[in-house]
Amino acid sequence: MPVARPVKGPDGSRPRFSSDQIGFLERAAAEYGDIFRFRLFGMPVIVLNNPDHIHQVLVGNRHKYDKEVLLYKLVRPVLRNGLITNPGGELYMRQRRMMQPAFRPAVVARFADGMTDETNSMLDRWRDRYRPGQVADLSAEFSELTLHIVTRTLFSAQVGETARRFAEAFTETNDILGRFFRFPFPPLSVPTPAHRRLRRAIRRMDDCVSAFIERSSTPANAADSAGPDAGTGKPGHGIDLLHLLMNAVDEEDGGGMDFEQLHHEVLNIVVGAYETTTNAMAWAFQVLAERPDIEARLHEEIDTVLDGRPPGMDDLRRTPYARRVVEETLRMYSPAWQFMRRAREEDVLGGHRIPAGSNIYINSYILHRRPEYWEDPDVFDPDRFTPERSKDRNRHAYMPFGAGERICIGQHFALVELQLVLLAIAQRHRFTLPPGQPPVRPQPLTTLHPGGGVHLEVRPRSGAAGGTPPAHDGDGGEGQDGRPGPAADPRSAS
Ligand code: HEM
């Protein structure tokens, strides 16, 4: 039985993955199709591009695969044994069982108003920050927004300063780890200056997570979590997601999570939720600025459905075009663009032998653009996700959140957040490309960034949706605090 063919250049040489990861994979997929192999830092890696083979690895034969591979080993010193990096097995299954209920759609729905509030707070800050037509650094804005949203839903809103310190430490950690695939470095145990900086950044992230948890464990906050506002993410009203995790009980053994495991899981959730959603938002608005036709349809839907009020959970099903814009963004610019598995035992995929111990590499950026499954794959076309046009497509050809038992636990959270943020921002602002701006290209780091960031001219929309929609509830408009900017954020837990 054949094994996957090795990638070779026209002269028989081995092209390098690390110098141009996307180009390398695109060229290899065009030439070799469903399956091929290459060497990554001396290790053989098998790349899967066929949706059914990928489904077999992630779902059908999942018991034959685990996460004992380079990609996760690399980030394990940071994320330890949380859900993202846990190699698999009993501990993993127990954690996932306990945590799953906290991410059910009905629970996520309770965070929706907090997401919209945070977005409108950001837009209120923009009034002071940007003159109409001024260029905004949307990557930086969305990075701050997603962190506010995740910390608000996990820990309540009173975490401004800690969240900022966490963001700095996270960015530094990510910068160092993100360089690995371009400039592979020695193991983290070797005390290079970069590794020492990394250790310090990890310690700072740990301190922030401990501060979040300790603050949430105070009797006042714990009592709030049982009150009528629990789960709404209202400032000072209960901790919601964190309390759900603190109180989670395994249905099989009746036990809960110890502090250390809780700490790791919280870190994994924040990391899982932060950059992925930030990048998706940034890509979505970059595309809207490039495609006024799509922006106009979105505006029309928003103005008809919302009629000037802020979006809420019920509006998500009433705004199918916005949902399709989100889906198409996640197709073309899948933020968690690569994942890996190790074959624990031999398998056969599409007639190819997968020896035990093989490293399997899956890349959703490439999968989502394979012309065999996607018509005009390089065109941003939200309507490809209408039910009519989706029905004949191989449904495993789209997996921005992965698949199977390790599918993203935060996928409902992310989809609700992305759609609400899109609605709330496009309701009040429109965006244009600065003159002469070069095209924004994907930059493959730990997640798929818009290279150089997204910088767009921002203008309030005229008419009904141009002003600040009223605060949606009676919490004193806490989310609309007119913060002048990150450095002056008054909401601090520390
Ligand atoms: C657009 C946003 C997001 C994308 C594209 C995304 C994508 C993914 C993907 C592809 C995986 C599976 C990786 C694998 O199988 O190796 C994953 C896992 C995970 N994600 Fe997300 N994610 C997003 C948002 C979130 C959010 C908002 C959270 C938390 C609130 C989150 C938390 C996690 C966690 C904890 C895991 C590990 C799950 C497990 O193995 O059991 N993610 N994500």
Percentage beta strand? 5-15%
CATH topology: Cytochrome p450
In total, the number of domains comes to 1
Main β-sheet, in a few words? 6 strands, mixed
Low-confidence stretches: 223-239, 464-494
- The number of E-state strands comes to 13
Strand order of the largest sheet: 1-2-3-9-6-4
Supply the helix-strand structural class: alpha+beta
Order of helices and strands: EHEEHEHHHHEHHHHHHHHEEEEHHHEEEE
Helix fraction bin: 40-55%
Distance between the termini: 61 Å
Oligomeric form of this entry? single chain
**What is the CATH superfamily?**
Cytochrome P450
Report the bound ligands by name, code or SMILES: protoporphyrin IX containing FE
Approximate shape = globular
Average predicted confidence as pLDDT: 87
The Rg value, from CA coordinates, equals 23 Å
Name the CATH architecture.
Orthogonal Bundle
Q: What is the CATH C level class, in words?
A: Mainly Alpha
